[in-house]
């Protein structure tokens, strides 16, 4: 059996409801084309903050320096550090923990530097809906002002190996 080409008049121009739905689809594409950049620049949901490349060893040294100068205690063997309000605080993601525990003051602004030394991690601060991808070799800076006291859990929401389910950390706000 041979294959026969379709008849020359097989194509029919769009008409009626088909034309309507093509128009609706085209208009929706144009609306989204305008809405996405608008939401990025005018919306409050995106982190367009500071981010830059950093040497992993240099970031680890900053974290170690912070622990050496600002440690106020330990929790389960993990140092608790209390950075100066208005200053920089460093948080390191690594298999399978967030290091160190940060102790912040309520209603004070901090610049939280977050990076990884091994592989990609997901920074998720609970119970808030705050999620960021943390990449090795990049310093992601979050400027935040804690508005309520309590202990806030950090989890990794990017699979990072066999101990991923154990990768938790804390931010304590007083």
Describe what is shown at a glance.
This protein has two domains: 35 residues; 123 residues, Immunoglobulin-like (Sandwich). It is built from two helices and twelve strands, in the order αβαβββββββββββ. With 174 residues, it is an alpha+beta fold.
Topology:
Elements: H1 17-42, E1 51-53, H2 56-70, E2 71-75, E3 78-81, E4 88-94, E5 97-99, E6 101-104, E7 110-116, E8 121-126, E9 130-134, E10 138-144, E11 150-156, E12 168-173
What does this structure look like?
The protein has 174 residues and is of the alpha+beta class. It folds into two domains: 12-46; 51-173, Immunoglobulin-like. It has helices spanning 17-42, 56-70, and strands at 51-53, 71-75, 78-81, 88-94, 97-99, 101-104, 110-116, 121-126, 130-134, 138-144, 150-156, 168-173. The protein has a seven-stranded mixed sheet with strand order 2-3-6-12-11-8-9. It has a five-stranded mixed sheet with strand order 1-10-7-4-5, covered by helices on one side. β2 (71-75) and β3 (78-81) form a beta hairpin. The mean pLDDT is 90.
């Amino acid at each position: 059996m041979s294959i026969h080409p379709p008849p020359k008049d097989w194509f029919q121009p769009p008409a009626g409801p088909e034309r309507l739905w093509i128009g609706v689809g085209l208009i929706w594409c144009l609306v989204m084309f305008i809405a996405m950049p608008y939401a990025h620049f005018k919306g409050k949901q995106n982190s367009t903050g500071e981010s830059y490349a950093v040497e992993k060893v240099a970031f680890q040294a900053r974290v170690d320096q912070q622990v050496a100068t600002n440690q106020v205690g330990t929790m389960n063997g993990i140092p608790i550090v209390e950075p100066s309000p208005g200053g920089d605080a460093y948080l390191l993601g690594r298999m399978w923990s967030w290091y160190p525990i940060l102790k912040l003051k309520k209603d004070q602004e901090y610049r939280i530097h977050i990076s990884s030394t091994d592989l990609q991690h997901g920074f998720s601060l609970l119970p808030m809906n705050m999620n960021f991808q943390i990449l090795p070799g990049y310093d992601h800076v979050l400027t935040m002002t804690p508005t309520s006291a309590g202990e806030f859990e950090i989890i990794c929401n990017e699979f990072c190996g066999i101990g991923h389910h154990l990768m938790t950390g804390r931010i304590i706000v007083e």
